[in-house]
Write the structure tokens for this entry.
Amino acid sequence: MSGHTVPADISDHMLDLDEDEDLEVYSKNTTLADGGTMPNSPGSMVNQYQLEEDEEDHQDVKTKDIFVCVDNPESHITAIETFITYRVVTKTSRSEFDSSEYEVHRRYQDFVWLRSRLEENYPTLIVHPLPEKFVMKGMVERFNDDFIETRRKALHRFLNKICEHPVLSYSQHFKAFLTAQDLGPYKKQGPGFLSRMGETMRAVAISVRGLRTKPEEFTVMQEYIDHFSTKICSVDKVTQRIIKEQKEYMDELKQYSPSYLQWAELEEELAEPLKGVGNCIERCSKETEDQIQHLSEVLLPTLHEYVLCADTLKAVMRRRDNIQAEYEVKNEALVSRRVEQEGLQEEVEDLAGRVEQANSALRGDWTLWRNVMRTDLKSAFVSAADRNVEYYEKCLAVWESFLLSQRGESVEQTDWEHGS
Amino acid sequence: MLELPPEELRTADGQLIVTSLGCSDQVLGEGSRLLRRMEICVSEAEKRSCRNAVSMLETFTVYLIETRPLEPTADGRNSSPDSVWRRYSEFELLRNYLIISYPYIVMPPLPEKRAEFVWHKLSADNMDPDFVERRRVGLENFLLRVASHSVLSNDKILHHFLTKEQGWKDLVHETGFQAKADSRLRALNAIFRVRSPNKHLMEVKHYSDELQSYTSQLLRARTRVADRLYAVYKVHGNYGRIFSEWSVIEKEMGDGLQSAGHHIDAYAASIDDILEEEEHYADQLKEYLFYAEALRAVCRKHELTQFELEMASQDLISKKQQREELATGIVRTFSFKGITNKIFGQEAPEQREARLNLLEELTSEGEEAVKEKTAECDEHAERAVTDILQFKEQKDKDLQEALISYALMQISMCKKGIQVWSNARECFLKM
């Protein structure tokens, strides 16, 4: 199929590699979804997502009754392939579940299956993206520890986003994913070849005729999505660049401190202050290293996630448009009386209903998504700013203690003189 | 060179300038110094153009040196300040004169001739205003150091440099130092080996080599760090722009994003001042990089003097030997005279007598020469050792101050960082 139409299996498209060479492995936002802290019992549910400063009435804050944890990656080696499975532990008080605790093992493919089912069943709901299949650069093998950990965190976050969703969390496929020891039978129930053909046909229809009247609200939504997509990509790129520059700065600092220490060996009186400065610089370079790590593990993954979300949004809009187009094609046929009438009337009414349903689902989920996005990004930015403050506070302490060792009581006096 | 006892320095009309404590600059040391009697500062810089010797239009910068005696004159009036305009090359001339005239002094260095250790945003252009400003400070520093030196501060050429704009160059050239400078340069460039060098000064020379090496290494590393830090700060500037554009499409997040963006912009902009201030620290280090060279020069001068002494001693020994041979007739060393004597027979007694007298004269001249050279060598060593000690104390003090000021700069930078990111955080919370 050509690149312009909507591919039938959208789930693959969701996980397409980005053309951009700068893309790197990311890990999910760990400040919001700590894989380690599982509540001990379904009754003692604590909302992991509550921010201290966040007074928002987040929909699931008070009613969260399902908890999922992804951990324990294990390597499996067969004759054909090597793959990793993750342990997925569920604790829930929902009545739909027979038990209150489940433990299963899932591999990446299984997550992909789940997501594609969710998108099929709820075409105009916004399903959180999965981490990418492959990593672009700097990886020697697929399964090094960092990569696995990054992916694990992302998968954990993915499932918890589903948990928090008022509709998706009740999906049968989600339940199966969490509970079935063997997913095999469920996977066979997939949409058949014919259904996929149908999707393609609809896609062709829309590209040929375009939509007759796109409702204003969705035009506005589309515009927002386009802008948001550009902006979030830019922020992501800038953040990557900052990390790169920070790394180079840190490397230079590592060359810089020894030059003080070397000189100190030549001197007598001056040895102590020279060593002092050299040590300060060394400690600051360590702080820089920590700070870079935080950026890479907290801010960047969140941004990257929302870059992928932007793609998801675009796909959702396309699917909605397709549904509308399908209705319009049939409706036009009905109106023009060119085709046999009887069954057509009913079909058109069905499709009209489907359009309404799709639109209202999207409308609701849109508000939800905007809110979650705002919360996630706010938290990530606040965390990054916090970390920067902490970085400078630590460096400040390092230099101040050096000054103290050199000057004693006159430190404060000099600080005052220098107008700090 | 004339060295008047400092207390008796008088003005042109014979007034005794009373000594008093003046500038609080750290370069002041013990003893009576020029600086105690007058304020010296290099206050301004200006561009001038003129046609040079080959009729090409030259643009250069001149610096205004202002001096003012601190005490009013005997009739109670405050003296008006003297001012002369000097360009960099005139400072160089002064320094070269002082080096030749006081070879045992570790000569305060001038600020660098061309901008070195430049990180990428910094201009290497000599006409760049920031460079000119830092040079102005460096030239003033040079004058203050020279004027507060126990020996240098009494030099008349220095005084004229500070007060006599016209005709100063002629005065310098009249001292004939240029010829000495040329011959010294030739001598120093020649390779020579000293048999018994002054151990202490050899150690100092070794130290100066290492000091040069370590300070230049440090300066290079610092430049690279500055370059990288500049990049880190500036890239953050992109956030401001993007947040601003993004805030347009957001209802609730917009204000928080945009105001955070403004703070981050301020963060990105702050690096320019931070690094400009750090240049002053780099200048302090550079001063001692160049001082290391000056220190080395003093040691080299001593080596040269020592070598000349050894040559003179050698010469004297050979002359004495020739005299002895002639007197006793015993030939110990090879000489053409010895050969010709054997071939053609001994010379006449009168000739022999004449030659003996000549050798006696040469020998006593040689003895004088050795005595003078020994005195020169010892004096040089003694004075050098004294000045080197003073230099060492000054260096420890100056560099410690420099390191402390560097720490203060870092502290200030950290405080700014804390401020900016706390502000940004508050804005993000409003998202």
